[in-house]
Amino acid sequence: MRKLNCEQLKTLATELRQYIIDTLSQHPGHLASSLGTVELTLALHYVFNTPDDKLVWDVGHQAYGHKIITGRRDQFHTIRTYGGLSGFPKMEESVFDAFGTGHSSTSISAALGMATASTLQGNHSRQHIAVIGDGSMTGGEAFEALNNAGVSKANMLVVLNDNGISIDKAVGGLSKYLVRITSSREYNQLKDKIWNRLGGNSDSPDRRKQKQINFFQRATFVAKTAALGAPNLFESLGFRYFGPIDGHDIDHLVEVLSKLKTINGPKLLHVVTKKGKGLRSAEKNPVTYHAPGKFDAETGNQITKSTNGEPLKYQDVFGRTIIELAEKNPKIVGITPAMPTGCSLNLMMQKMPSRAFDVGIAEQHAVTFSAGLAAQGMVPFCNIYSSFMQRAFDQIIHDVALQHLPVVICLDRAGLVGDDGPTHHGAFDMACLRPIPGLTICAPMDEHELRNMMYTAQLPDQGAVVIRYPRGLSVHPDWQNKPEKLPVGRGRCVREGSDVAIISIGHIGNSALMAAEQLAGEGISAAVYDMRYLKPIDTDLLDAIAKQGFRRIVTVEDGVKKGGLGSAVLEHYAERGISLPVTILGLPDSYVTHGPIPQLQKDCGIDVDSIVSACMNRL
Q1: Coil, helix or strand for 247?
Q2: Helix 6-26 and helix 250-260, axial crossing angle in degrees, nearest 10
Q3: Catalytic residues, which ones?
Q4: Angle at 510 between CA 506 and CA 512, to 5 degrees
Q5: Residue 540: predicted pLDDT
Q6: Alpha-carbon Rg of the chain, whole angstroms?
Q7: Which residues contact 66 (CB under 8 A, 6 or more apart)?
Q8: 500 forms bridges with which residues in the sheet?
């Protein structure tokens, strides 16, 4: 590719974009983000000597073009499929993937670490590039890294891919600030004049020109401030700021990047791109086409299957239920860190815009913001994907549970999530949160229970409550039961039996029921218990199970089995001095790959057949 000229690069960009469209139309993945970075991807690899120069993508679903041109074109159709390519950069997958980036806002920290390591190792020529976009700059870690990098002498370049959107529309002060930069005629005219004065299209700056750059960086700071009406944020932090430039103009991208290679120290290039570029449907509706599933490659129309008679997704039940509860309880508010559509809080944002908040990609802030609301008498429902909750672990302890504040934390995508893989599986929430004092943890077996748990959590004197539920369809088409108060910390028997006992929590209890049906065909009577609450756990029910004289007890959970439900059951029996044959089924002490959820459940030993085998002691 580096042997091509810029005209040939433009042809390659057209081919690459079409290849992404054609492939993802039949093999679904993250579409719109990678369409928007085609020219930027080619320019970066064209100018920089990757993989020796380190290129970090943030967030990773911008990097499909990167994967294709770095030796994975023939495997690209396997993206996000079992045994195929990861949907995100993965160090084990290619030397060109300098850092794994499934969660956002990590690239600047990682690139700064790499740049510092290169300096310590005596390599002063290596380049380090962090491409941060899709709203990732709103994450707190990105600002922490900017603050650190700005006072360093690290040889690094931050490329801000500004497309005005993350998964949903970008929100917050930073988004508005970037709009001001890109729309300021005075600023852009000044920038162009400075660029031309420094040589414009001439060869790379020599030492004299480098001094000119340093001089103009300082001399024009006041002028830029006047044009924008405020100091340039990035220059205030110590970065040399360049841009904004058109992220779809390969000629200009190559020119600018080539010049920036010669400038030492921390630099930031502001690139403006269009998410979904090249596919009209994706350009018009980048939220839907972030990951649209199958679609027609020519028209862009989504290929949808009928959902008539199917249950609602758990997230949709959440979205409708919080509105129903909020209509009766004026204290209820909704909060999400940049996932309003994914968690269905967008329904509340449309109906009650003053009571629903998208705080950007900022999980820590979302939790403490919720705590502040609760401290003043509100009842916040803070909805965070389970794997993203890990980023706010301290806030849940320090700002919520320790202060006994009534925050309801709804963990969407708990358990296995399928194609997004190990960075997104909600594997650790129960084991992480169970040791925290003052926290109630529950999980619904179906959407009726989800509504009951949400209703119960918003009642007075409930304290901090965590409700975890999985991605996707629930159980009953008639989801809209009248929500009722649950007895907190109490489980239930959902199937009587006498030979073996299956103890479960959450949606996977439905698999336990199916296993019990199969066992009945084998002449084995299996009781099924839905614990509902992991904390406080129903010790009376566990004692009653112990007295039944079951030949075997099997616990089943869709989280890691170390520290979760099975551990809680064993701890209780150990404290009581009760010795019972207990088998724990759950996710292994390893990271689970990506693939279809039924296949992953089988691999992890938590599918129906595995439960049956465990009950028959055939593990």
Answers
A1: coil
A2: 110
A3: 275, 363, 391
A4: 95
A5: 98
A6: 27
A7: 41, 45, 55, 57, 89, 96
A8: 526, 552
Q: Shortest CA distance to 467 belongs to which of 508, 530, 408? A: 408
Helix (H, G, I), strand (E, B) or coil at 275: coil
Contact in structure between 35 and 20 (CB atoms under 8 Å): yes
What pLDDT score does 291 carry? Answer: 81
The whole-angstrom distance between residue 41's C-alpha and the CA centroid of its chain comes to 22
* Cβ atoms of 442 and 532 closer than 8 Å: yes
The structure's pTM equals 0.88
pLDDT of residue 165: 59
- For 57, phi then psi, to 5°, come to -100, 135
Q: How many CB atoms lie within 10 A of CB 154?
A: 22
For 299-314, the DSSP string reads T--B-----TTPPPBH
Indicate the DSSP class of residue 466.
Answer: E
Question: What pLDDT does 198 receive?
Answer: 55
Distance of CA 31 to the CA centre of its chain: 16
The alpha carbon torsion through 187, 192, 198, 204 (nearest 10 deg) reads 120
Numbers of helices and strands, H then E, in the chain = 26, 17
Q: At what angle do helices 509-521 and 608-615 cross, to 10 degrees?
A: 60
Structure tokens at 205: 């700056």
Q: Is 192 strand, coil or helix?
A: helix
Residue type, 183: S
Structure tokens at 346: 């967008």
Residue with tokens 């190559």: 254
**Cα dist from 377 to 231, 321, 332, 398, 438, whole Å:** 38, 21, 10, 19, 18
Q: What angle do CA 60, 62, 64 make, to 5 degrees?
A: 95
Residues 6+ apart with CB under 8 A from 606: 508, 511, 556, 557, 558, 585, 586, 587
Residues 6 or more apart in contact with residue 202 via CB below 8 angstroms: none
Token pair 């005629």 is found at: 185
**Cβ 582 vs Cβ 573: under 8 Å:** yes
3-state DSSP assignment of residue 436: coil
Report pLDDT for 290: 84
Which residues in the chain land under pLDDT 70? 134, 164-231, 306-308, 618-619
pLDDT, position 170? 55
For residue 390, the Cα-to-chain-centroid distance in whole angstroms is 11
Question: Which helix (H) or strand (E) covers residue 188, if one does?
Answer: helix 185-197
What distance in Å separates the CA atoms of residue 236 and residue 244, rounded to the nearest whole number?
17
Query: What pLDDT sits at residue 476?
Result: 82
